[in-house]
Amino acid sequence: MWIADNWKDYEVLDCSGGEKLERWGKYALVRPDPQVIWSTPRNRAEWKKPNAHYHRSNKGGGEWEFFDLPNEWQISYGDLRFNLKPFSFKHTGLFPEQATNWDWMSGLIKNAVSKGREVKVLNLFAYTGGATVACAKAGASVTHVDASKGMVGWAKENAASSGLADAPIRFFVDDCVKLVEREIRRGNKYDGIIMDPPSYGRGPKGEIWKIEDSIYPFIELTTQILADDALFFLVNSYTTGLQPAVLKYMIGTLVEKKFGGHTEAEEIGLPVSESGLVLPCGASGRWRA
Asked: Which of 209, 226, 238, 243 could disulfide-link to 282, CB 3.0 to 4.6 Å?
């Protein structure tokens, strides 16, 4: 398992009974987590007095209960800075477990840039731009694509907060498949490609995305814009059916077979302070030259 264990401003304090207790900066949040199927004693004081608690509804969805939490606040990861706010379906605008992938990509980019190479990265389904700012801070020019105008706006704020307002980042509110198809026609190539696809989603014009049907042909499509001497290809999955072995097979078949290099895939996770265990948080498949 790849573990995001370099955080200072974020921590999973404890988890029990379908919920996790987290520290985001100086604020404690309780949020549901379907992986937490065990029940252990809730000894941490923050369980009783969190700053906010997201209550899941039996009918689907849920709602926040706020006690003492600002509308928006910031946390840092190294020299990256992120704007957080509680919004729909338990989210805060950041997936901290992805820091393990930010570190991996940043290392590859910094090494290439130190040798005088210009690095172009494409971030698809890019959400609020965690990977975008990590890659840009490492020295890459980044093309950031998401179907949600609100998420792209949030990503721009994160870039500015991280001192990257003038960095070479192109932001697009667009359907990822259509943008890749345009890049193929234009002959554009990228040294690194990141995709973090949803299980189900719609593009800006109602285009339907269902991951089980769409992910394999989409990876195949994006290999057409991967540079011959590319650095990396990363696919994240929060869908139960897409286990690490499935990601490794898809990327190995479509990317490694065409470009050589090495493919690996693992669960990603976050350390739990109270128990010393690691909370699984999805999976990632990585290819590198």
From this structure: 238
Q: State yes or no: pLDDT of 28 exceeds 90.
A: yes
Q: Which two tokens stand for residue 76?
A: 């840092």
Domains, the chain, in order of start with CATH, read 2-84 (2.60.40.1180), 96-288 (3.40.50.150)
pLDDT digits (tens, 9 = 90+) for 160-197: 999 999 999 999 999 999 999 999 999 999 999 999 98
